[in-house]
Structure formats: structure tokens, C-alpha cells
């Protein structure tokens, strides 16, 4: 039977925010760095080795790593670095699928005659990112997107790992179950409670057993991945179906005013990105994570698509206020928003009555100031004196 070549690259920048800080400040190189104060937005590998993790409370992180250097986030620097890295990706191959600000899939199967085998292309890519952008990057190479991503995770930091088609299951099956996409804390606990600790043990279970254990969707999903069944190609130019951002807010007690301030910050950022992409949205989605790691989602669909910050914020505030009693009772550790049901910008319907101000003029003026002077040049009064740290979008701006 014919087995296709391993031609998919998963390229993932190492400790992205922290690496940018270490690149830009030589005094930070080789030292434990934490980006973000109240909540860890990123940690260098020197800090990670001492147990510091993303979304961890800042106080706990400093107890684990008291010698850490804490720096405030610089979102404009991270965005610029991301754009420079994606230029390297696109110089490598036209088939690039960005999946976050710091990682992408690349298909290099058609480049063998002009650029060499995939492993050589991957090594050249890593060298180009370091030389042109000054950042370390890890690359996994495999026949499927899933396995390429697993390979890059195993190879971190600053590594390269090629999984040949003839050795896929030998590589995959000894790995812990947490390497499977979709296995978080809850699913991991369910599997480990039954003595299932490796991918190979998952692969030995029938699909019906897994669905009975985890539910139809999760069971079928994990059964396929445990056998490296992932037919998805690298997709280029796919228009995003939603635009979102989220912020981990730590384990301390948060007032309704705290939560509304975080929400306003998230809406400001996502609405700005929405307008930059010349899109409008009909649905506002609020995502929450509780102190017990449970999650909840609330959404509202508007009559007309809009890119107006105030309309989107009013809608999001309504969703938040409806669940405030639950949040205050159970504790909230993460707030996220996404704007979905996207249309083109010109699909937004103007509403009567019109006044003398051009619709969207205020948003456009604020966007222009932030584009020129940085995202913190203009801010809401409710955000003054608060931690400016904010998570990055799922895709680069």
C-alpha cells in the first residue's frame, strides 16, 4: 500500500512573548522571565523549568521562581514579530495555514525538486527565523497535521523532529494521553482513573468503548487520533469564522467591576481587529472558566451585523450580567469573547435615525490613534490603573 510522504510542517515559536522580551533586552537572556503581573501571560523556559505556567497567578509564580524578572506585556512588539515570522513562512512555501499568532502549518510536498526534502526545508526555515527575526522556533514534520503538531511539542524547545510515515505509531503510542488533541484535565482524569495513561492504550480500545466512556464526539475523535487518522489538508486563504480574545484573570476574588473592565478591554481589541479585517459580526459569544475548571458559554445574535464597539460591548455586558451570580458564587478565572457570524464590512446595515456624525467615525479615529501610537495610547477610563495584559488573537492581525 502506498504511504504518502511526511510533508506537513508545524512551526511553533518557543515561549513567544518571553522570547521577544529576551531578544529585545540582552540582560534578560538566560534568565527566568515572566510576562504579565497579576497573571502569567508567558514564561521563558528558564522559568518553566521551575514550574511556572501560563495563566498561573503571579504570586504563585513568584513563589515557585522568586528570582524571576517580571515584565509588562508589549502587544505591539509581539504583533510585529509575528508578522515578520509569517513573512518567513510565506517565503518558504505559499501553502501556509496560520493557527495562532505564533504557530502555523506549512505544506512543502511540492517543493522537493526546487528546495529539497521536507527535513532540509524545515531546518532552513528554523535558521531563517533566527537570522531574520531573532527568535527560536521548533518544527515538527509528519504526514498529518495532528502528528506534526505532536512532533513539535515533543521537540521543544528550539528543536526539529521528523516522524517518518513508517514509524508513526511507534512514535505516537508511547506518549502520554495528554498529547492527544482534546485531552484536557477532565478527559485526562477520566482516562487515568481507568488506568489509561498512554496513547497506545487508547488505541487498543474500540471506538464504542471510548464513546461510552467519554461521549460520542470525544470518543470518535480520540479513537481517530490514536491511530493517526487526520485527513485535514493545509488550508490557505481560509476566511476566519470568528474573531476572539481571552484573558486569564487568576484565582483571586473579582468584583463585578473587575469583570466588566476585563470584558471592555476584550471587546475593544476584538472590535478593532474586526474592523481591520473589514468584517462585521452578528453574534457575540462570552466564554467563562470557573475556579473548578468548568466552563460556560453564553451568546446573543443581533438583528443586524455590526462592527460598532459600543453595540458589541452593550451586548457582551448583557451576557455577563446575566451570569454574574454564578460567577461570584463559583469564582471566575478566565473571560473570553468572540465575534461570530461574520459578514463583509459592507453587509452591515445602517440604522435610523442618522445624526450628523458619520457612523463609525469615533471607532475609526480611535483605531487610527492606536495604530500610530500603540494600543495603550487611548484607553477607557474604567481600565486606568489596571493590568494591561491581554491574550493574543487566535490568528495574527
Automatic annotation (TrEMBL):
It is found in: Cytoplasm. Its main location: cytoplasm. Mg(2+) binds at residues 12, 102. It is an enzyme of class 2 (transferase). One of its GO terms (biological process) is error-prone translesion synthesis. The keyword Cytoplasm applies. Residues 8-184 form the UmuC domain. InterPro entries: DNA/RNA_pol_sf, DNA_pol_Y-fam_lit_finger_sf, DNA_pol_Y-fam_little_finger, DNA_polymerase-Y, DNApol_IV, PolY_HhH_motif, Rev_trsase/Diguanyl_cyclase, UmuC. GO terms for cellular component: cytosol. The active site is at residue 103. SUPFAM superfamilies: DNA/RNA polymerases, Lesion bypass DNA polymerase (Y-family), little finger domain. The record marks 17 as: Substrate discrimination. The keyword Magnesium applies. Its EC number is 2.7.7.7. Binds 2 magnesium ions per subunit. Its cofactor is Mg(2+). GO terms for molecular function: damaged DNA binding; DNA-directed DNA polymerase activity; magnesium ion binding. It catalyses: DNA(n) + a 2'-deoxyribonucleoside 5'-triphosphate = DNA(n+1) + diphosphate. PANTHER family: DNA POLYMERASE KAPPA (PTHR11076:SF33), DNA REPAIR POLYMERASE UMUC / TRANSFERASE FAMILY MEMBER (PTHR11076). Monomer. HAMAP family: DNApol_IV (MF_01113). Poorly processive, error-prone DNA polymerase involved in untargeted mutagenesis. Copies undamaged DNA at stalled replication forks, which arise in vivo from mismatched or misaligned primer ends. These misaligned primers can be extended by PolIV. Exhibits no 3'-5' exonuclease (proofreading) activity. May be involved in translesional synthesis, in conjunction with the beta clamp from PolIII. Belongs to the DNA polymerase type-Y family. This is DNA polymerase IV. It comes from Actinophytocola oryzae. The lineage of its organism: Bacteria, Bacillati, Actinomycetota, Actinomycetes, Pseudonocardiales. The gene is dinB.
Amino acid at each position: 500500500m502506498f504511504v504518502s510522504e511526511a510533508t506537513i510542517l508545524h512551526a511553533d515559536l518557543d515561549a513567544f512573548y518571553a522570547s521577544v522580551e529576551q531578544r529585545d533586552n540582552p540582560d534578560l537572556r538566560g534568565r527566568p522571565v515572566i510576562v504579565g503581573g497579576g497573571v502569567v501571560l508567558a514564561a521563558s523556559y528558564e522559568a518553566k523549568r521551575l514550574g511556572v505556567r501560563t495563566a498561573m497567578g503571579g504570586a504563585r509564580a513568584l513563589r515557585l521562581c522568586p528570582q524571576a524578572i517580571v515584565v509588562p506585556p508589549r502587544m505591539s512588539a509581539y504583533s510585529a514579530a509575528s508578522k515578520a515570522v509569517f513573512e518567513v513562512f510565506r517565503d518558504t512555501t505559499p501553502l501556509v495555514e496560520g493557527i495562532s499568532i505564533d504557530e502555523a502549518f506549512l505544506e512543502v510536498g511540492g517543493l522537493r525538486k526546487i528546495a529539497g526534502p521536507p527535513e532540509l526545508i524545515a531546518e532552513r526555515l528554523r535558521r531563517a527565523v533566527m537570522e531574520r527575526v531573532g527568535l527560536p522556533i521548533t518544527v515538527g514534520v509528519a504526514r498529518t497535521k495532528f502528528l506534526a503538531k505532536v512532533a513539535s511539542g515533543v521537540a521543544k524547545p528550539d528543536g526539529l523532529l521528523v516522524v517518518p510515515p513508517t514509524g508513526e505509531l511507534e512514535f505516537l503510542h508511547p506518549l502520554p494521553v495528554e498529547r492527544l488533541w482534546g485531552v484536557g484535565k477532565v478527559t485526562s482524569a477520566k482516562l487515568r482513573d481507568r488506568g489509561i495513561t498512554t496513547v497506545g492504550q487508547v488505541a487498543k480500545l474500540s471506538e464504542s468503548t471510548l464513546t461510552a466512556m467519554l461521549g460520542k464526539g470525544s470518543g470518535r475523535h480520540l479513537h481517530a487520533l490514536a491511530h493517526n487518522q487526520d485527513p485535514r489538508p493545509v488550508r490557505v486563504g481560509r476566511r476566519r469564522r470568528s474573531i476572539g480574545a481571552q484573558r486569564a484573570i487568576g484565582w483571586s476574588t473579582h468584583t463585578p467591576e473587575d469583570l466588566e473592565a476585563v470584558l471592555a478591554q476584550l471587546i475593544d481589541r476584538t472590535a478593532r481587529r474586526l474592523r481591520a479585517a473589514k468584517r462585521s459580526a452578528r453574534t457575540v459569544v462570552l466564554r467563562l472558566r470557573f475556579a473548578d475548571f468548568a466552563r460556560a458559554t453564553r451568546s446573543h445574535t443581533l438583528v443586524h451585523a455590526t462592527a460598532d464597539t459600543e453595540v458589541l460591548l452593550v451586548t457582551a455586558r448583557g451576557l455577563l450580567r446575566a451570569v454574574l451570580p454564578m460567577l461570584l458564587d463559583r469564582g471566575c478565572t478566565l473571560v473570553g469573547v468572540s465575534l461570530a457570524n461574520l459578514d463583509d464590512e459592507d453587509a452591515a446595515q445602517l440604522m435610523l435615525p442618522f445624526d450628523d456624525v458619520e457612523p463609525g467615525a469615533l471607532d475609526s479615529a480611535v483605531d487610527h490613534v492606536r495604530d500610530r501610537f500603540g494600543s495603550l495610547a487611548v484607553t477607557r477610563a474604567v481600565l486606568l490603573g489596571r493590568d494591561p495584559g491581554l491574550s493574543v488573537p487566535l490568528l495574527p492581525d
